[in-house]
Amino acid sequence: MAATTYERLKLHITPEKFYVEACDDGADDVLIIDRVSTEVTLAVKKDIPPSAVTRPIFGILGTIHLVAGNYLIVITKKTKIGEFFNHVIWKATDFDVLSYKKTMLHLTDIQLQDNKTFLGMINHVLSVDGFYFSTTYDLTHTLQRLSNTSPEFQEMSLLERADQRFVWNCHLLRELSAQPEVHRFALPVLHGFITMHSCSINGKYFDWILISRRSCFRAGVRYYVRGIDSEGHAANFVETEQIVHYNGSQASFVQTRGSIPVFWSQRPNLKYKPRPQINKVANHMDGFQRHFDSQVIIYGKQVIINLVNQKGSEKPLEQAFATMVSSLASGMIRYVAFDFHKECKNMRWDRLGILLDQVAEMQDELSYFLVDASGNVLTNQEGVFRSNCMDCLDRTNVIQSLLARRSLQAQLQRLGVLHVGQKIEEQDEFEKIYKNAWADNANACAKQYAGTGALKTDFTRTGKRTQLGLIKDGWNSLIRYYKNNFSDGFRQDSIDLFLGNYSVDELESHSPLSVPRDLKFLALPIIMVVAFSMCIICLLMAGDTWTETLAYVLFWGVASVGTFLIILYNGKDFVDAPRLVQKEKID
């Protein structure tokens, strides 16, 4: 079976069945989904009834079971990102969620409300930008992994050969994956970021590509998913690959990021920066070793760059990480601690050069992947930089962009694009493309994990830290604070439902969504906002006397501060916490 899926599809709908017709040249296959029995079969075009309602679609994301029954999720709009070695890469930009059931009359009012909420969760995940696919290319693997495969691997379907860490619709495709004969309808979808640019330096044209693959293992939102799980999967794990294609030669440099791999948490409690809590009873070494055993198998040597603060609330995590590396005593793992905020305070971002100089020899040792136009592998990447800060977003992205630039400098010189002595930083047109792409990558990863764009992107885009950038960071931090405290419970539930970490059971006697919110969850925050607003209004609209104005201000000021203190003291009672209890996936 060729490693492709059907590119052109039509969906035909009747009251009894969904018919997905393959419209590629020479194709006669039709996937039939029975809306009553949920059975999936393969047929031919003559089996499509003429009475069916027809619409074009661009892929099947999969199926999911909710309270009302099964739903079919299809891609209805796509945008071309570019071409990758003659393979077209697409971004899915719109979806449709279609019910198998023709009516909802069999549901109670509570079930109807629960089903509506679950549908909202699925649509929320689908609304988060960053779903990518190709019908002819395996986006889940790096160039180096794809270069070292067997003939049997090459014959596998895209779904069979995909790296399961990065197939975000793996759970949704479980019914199709069980039937190899329908795999050409099963489209693996990546979540993360992809950008492609045709560039020119010294009159020499090359393609420059940046891919970030977000892991679906231990996936979630900022404060509800930290550290590792018992299998060693790290929160917010992202594999980022930078690729150059010039005159048939291909070069690649891979980096990873992921949460500090011990058992720790940082649950929101209305404080701007909740204190991290390290689990005191967990077997940290077991999870830590599982994590790095898998990383070494996949990537080789590990150079850890830990960017967290080495004082204050982040210090215990830095110490725990350093201790675990020392205790593991593996020659494959090296540890570099760099207090980003301390070293770069007062906007001294030039001091990042200290870190780059410190790891330069290690980077040369890790090297990069390079294959010539004849398919001969000239160099292999022997390991990766594994960078992290607290969120593995802002500080991490800055460092990754600098390490990637240094690797790209070496690659372009070896390929003959850059002359001896030339620097990438001197190539104004390409430098602008490079910086903006890495800033866009930062924003995409941040929105998917923290709910807002990244911080510090002014440095990534311009190479300088600016006052305007600081103001923008302040605004994004404010939005993050609101989302992390008042909407991330819903976001976490949505991801768990989408990935199959929670499975809906309509026979469940007690719905997890039926847990009523305490009135104070809504009442006190509203009182605080009203009181604070009235305080401002009193300042802007003075009374007849200053005494009267002062009295109003004091009254509403005390009301707002008092309410805030009540909320802060019992912060956990007011945040939007997840309500779905994770269950084992149903295969």
Automatic annotation (TrEMBL):
BP-aspect Gene Ontology terms: phosphatidylinositol dephosphorylation
Domain SAC: 122-451
EC top class named in words: hydrolase
Pfam entry (one): Syja_N
Annotated catalysed reactions: a 1,2-diacyl-sn-glycero-3-phospho-(1D-myo-inositol 4-phosphate) + H2O = a 1,2-diacyl-sn-glycero-3-phospho-(1D-myo-inositol) + phosphate; a 1,2-diacyl-sn-glycero-3-phospho-(1D-myo-inositol-3-phosphate) + H2O = a 1,2-diacyl-sn-glycero-3-phospho-(1D-myo-inositol) + phosphate
Keyword Lyase annotated: no
Gene Ontology MF annotations: phosphatidylinositol-3-phosphate phosphatase activity; phosphatidylinositol-4-phosphate phosphatase activity
Transmembrane feature ranges: 521-543, 549-569
EC number annotated for this UniProt entry: 3.1.3.64
Keywords, sorted A to Z: Membrane, Transmembrane, Transmembrane helix
Signal peptide region: none
Protein name, as recorded: Phosphatidylinositol-3-phosphatase SAC1
Organism: Rhinolophus ferrumequinum (Greater horseshoe bat)
